[in-house]
Amino acid sequence: MYPNHTPGQPAQRAVEVHHLTPIPPPVVQAAPVVPVQPGTVPAVASVVLPDGRVVTGYAIDPARPEPVAAKPPVSRAAVNVALGGVGFLAVCGGLLLLTSFIAALTAFIGQLIVLAAVIFGGWIAVQVLGTSGGKGSTTVNIRKATFKRNHFHG
What we know:
Elements: E1 44-48, E2 54-58, H1 76-129, E3 146-148, E4 151-153
Antiparallel strand pairs: 1-2, 3-4
């Protein structure tokens, strides 16, 4: 309950009234128009259209773009340093690729040598450990053999 409130009577409160303050619109003053005479009086041009009408008016010069500011010159030393850096990086990259290629080629040749050794070793093993007495093979009993004039007789 409110402190000023007594039973049977309505409560009273202090009321503040706020009034709006209007903001005056900004004052716009038109700039005075000052006529400017051109340096020279432009020539009046007349054009005859194909249907016979004549159009007269002033020739208007096309708008010229502002001159582009000259770029500052690049020093030869800066160009040489940049080209030298690019060349150095190209050589380093080429050497890296070359060493990688040589390492891969060396590994490939090593694998080919191992493969040839395995195939040739397998062929030798088949020849040595193959069955004797088969087609195209000769069995020699050395104890019964005699040597005569560099010929081997059995």
